[in-house]
Specification:
The protein has 676 residues and is mainly beta. The strands form 7 sheets. The protein has a 22-stranded antiparallel beta barrel. Strands 4-10-11-8-9 form a 5-stranded mixed β-sheet. Strands 1-2-3 form a 3-stranded antiparallel β-sheet, covered by helices on one side. Strand 6 and strand 7 form a beta hairpin. The two termini are 35 Å apart.
């Protein structure tokens, strides 16, 4: 394994040397070369080549983020197999993604290996400009990470300080009066210093196609690292404030039908969100074989949501206005010890650890039917709170003998949840659970690896659920979600090439899964049992002739095993049976057009059901994206780039849990940047 890791690191360094404009990424946490990942510690918390991990893993690299220019995390996941960010149409308020047909936006959200808790509405917003990459680990993974969903996790990799001096300034404009300035500065504090820094930030003013729906943001993320060869420490922080629209929906005149009538009130439509995080990562080598680790993060999100909607009143429509406030405080700590050694012919890479989490959130809500001003002036009463305390113990062993490799993980979790109702009465729920993973793989010398794995998950849920979303009396604390997955797969990553091909077949049984139900017009959660099974194919490649390609295909079916009356045996709403994506970019390397990059992408979303009764069908959709970039030889470090999303302006309806949404139409951005 060591020689393979060295090979990937060498490729990444070569990529930086030949690139006319160096990229953002460092080489420690995620080694990457163009669209192809090298090593990542996402799947096992140990630096492991992605082509040798016996589990389906997709890495959205820094180059992919830069070339596709996503505005949100959902857009960044659009070319990942079995990652569906399309369930709720246009809605930039939340990154509501599904993995393998199962909701992952509550229990599958991680940053730098630590869970990023989301409350029902106080969600952390991810800024793509602040990321080195996005690692998508599919299937149950709580044996190492704890508190994670059965569909998988999305781990956001924060930009870290670089050892070399780096500067970037970028100006962006685009559709709907978009105006953004961003900067990224990194390097050692002084010549020969053991300290390095990074300062990343942006300021944006923008509108959207919806009246009164803004997309404004300020973001600042400082980072500081220290490395003396034995001890490595990194401090990561963020402060950001954003304003989007409070309402993203269109009026549904009938069940399974969406109109062109926007639900929001342009004069009462702000969704204000303030968030911050502060954390650190420390590693200390006791000797060549033993390393101590600790990661910590404190974070908080405050939201103030103004929303509106319409309801039939006689032959006309009347309007209501809502005011909702929510905040969440989280503390996450992970302590680990890594040991590398041999027992006879078997080599081991072992990680043992203890992690602890604390999450507190509270909500305030009111609803008015007189006017927006009346609702804004009204008191916003307390409606509920929850405190969650979790502790987990885990052990992971990566074993290798000859061409065989085995991964074994085990974990025990204890969780205490205290719920406070609107009348300030409290109740406590205690949950304990075990989870594990066992994977076996065989490597051929030609770069082919085959594997099989079984994994389980245990995931307590933050927030309330409703056995009947239309009846407030059925509100209760959510039970933990548990699941079991069987997966077999194949990977092809030949040495000496920049290519990664993967295929996987999976079968997941989930119990007490939490899904969002908006059939009542409110964001309420409910629980049900599901089975998800399917097949995934992915390819990532870069060639020396200037071509880079990303391709993915997934076929899946999610069946309801236990749920509301009349839904058992049906397919879960909003989950397309087939998704396909293809992205290609060609960088012209010689001749008069040298420096010009041409890119195009296609995203196909197949048919799905719009409700759990399977009475509504969502049509399939095809989205086409384009990108053009130019790096003039006369201006080293300067790049101009234009991206168009949904070129042919497809705006079909899509329904989930019986409520229907509209896709976003054609959008574009244009940027001018200089790196020096």
């Amino acid at each position: 394994p060591g020689s393979i890791i060295s090979t990937y690191r060498a490729r990444a360094l070569q990529s930086k040397i030949r690139s006319p404009v160096p990229n953002h990424s460092t080489t420690d946490t995620l080694v990457q070369d163009g669209y192809v990942p090298g090593t990542s510690r996402t799947a096992t918390k140990l630096d492991t080549p992605v082509g040798r991990i016996p589990q389906a893993v997709t890495i959205v690299t820094q180059d992919q983020i830069e070339d596709q220019a996503p505005r949100t995390l959902n857009e960044a996941l659009g070319y990942t197999a079995a990652a569906n960010p399309n369930n709720y149409g246009f809605d930039t308020r939340f990154d509501a993604f599904f993995l393998r047909g199962l909701p992952a936006y509550y229990n599958g959200y991680f940053r730098d290996g630590l869970r990023q808790y989301n409350a029902p509405t106080a969600w952390f917003k991810s800024e793509p400009y602040g990321l080195e990459g996005v690692a998508v680990l599919k299937g149950p993974n709580s044996s190492l990470y704890g508190v994670s969903g059965p569909g998988g996790i999305v781990n956001l990799i924060t930009k870290r300080p670089k050892d070399d001096r780096y500067r970037e300034i970028e100006l962006t404009t685009g559709a709907n009066d978009r105006a953004q300035i961003a900067g990224d500065f990194s390097g050692p504090l002084s010549e020969g210093s053991e300290f390095s820094y990074r300062l990343t930030g942006l300021a944006r003013k923008a509108n959207s196609d919806l009246p009164g729906y803004a997309d404004d943001k300020t973001y600042f993320a400082p980072a500081l690292s220290w490395d003396n060869g034995v001890t490595r420490a990194t401090l990561l922080a963020e402060v950001s404030s954003s304003v989007t629209g409070g309402t993203a929906a269109f009026y549904n005149p009938a069940y399974g039908e969406v109109s062109d009538l926007y639900e929001g009130d342009p004069d009462y439509n702000d969704f204000d969100q303030d968030q911050w995080r502060l954390g650190y990562e420390i590693e200390h080598d006791l000797n060549d074989s033993v390393t101590l680790r600790q990661s910590f993060r404190a974070a908080r999100v405050d939201i103030d949501l103004e929303y509106s909607g319409q309801y039939p009143l006689g032959a006309d429509l009347a309007r209501y206005w809502g005011h909702y406030k929510e905040n969440i405080d989280t503390l996450v700590l992970d302590n680990g010890l890594r040991w590398s050694g041999n027992t006879g012919a078997v080599s081991h890479d072992i990680l043992a650890g203890i992690d602890m989490t604390r999450a507190d959130y509270e909500t305030y809500s009111t609803l008015g039917y007189v006017s927006a001003a009346d609702t804004a002036a009204a008191a916003v009463p307390f409606t509920g709170a929850q405190e969650q305390r979790q502790m987990g113990i885990y052990l992971h062993d990566q074993m290798q003998w000859g061409n065989w490799q085995a991964f074994a993980s085990a974990r025990w979790d204890s969780v205490e949840t205290t719920t406070t109702a609107a009348d300030r009465s409290t109740g406590t729920q205690e949950d304990t659970g075990r989870s594990g993973r066992l994977a076996l793989s065989y490597d051929w010398s030609n770069g082919v690896m085959v594997y099989g794995s079984v994994s389980t998950s245990f995931a307590p849920n933050i927030g309330f659920v409703y056995d009947d979303p239309a009846d407030e009396a059925t509100q209760r604390a959510a039970r933990p979600t548990q699941s079991t997955q069987r997966e077999i797969g194949l990977k092809y990553a030949p040495e000496g090439t920049n290519l990664l091909l993967s295929a996987a077949v999976f079968d997941i049984d989930q119990r007490d899964g939490t899904v969002l139900d908006v059939s009542t017009g409110e964001n309420r959660q409910r629980q049900l049992d599901l089975n998800s099974r399917g097949v995934e194919l992915e390819a990532q490649a870069n060639w020396a002739n200037g071509w880079g390609v990303i391709a993915s295909y997934a076929h899946q079916r999610v069946r309801i095993e236990k749920g509301a009356a009349g839904t058992v045996g049906n397919e879960l709403s909003g989950v397309p049976n087939d998704t396909l994506s293809l992205w290609g970019k060609y960088d012209i390397q010689s001749g008069p057009a040298a420096g010009l990059g041409l890119a195009a992408g296609l995203r196909y979303v197949g048919e799905s059901y719009g409700d759990d009764a399977n009475a509504i069908t969502n049509d399939d959709r095809v989205f086409v994206d384009l990108g053009v970039s130019y790096q003039p030889a006369q201006l080293p470090g300067v790049e101009m780039q234009v991206n168009i999303k949904n070129l042919f302006d497809q705006q079909k309806q899509t329904c989930t849990a019986g409520y229907c949404y509209r896709d976003e139409g054609r959008t574009w951005t244009a940027s001018l940047s200089r790196r020096f």
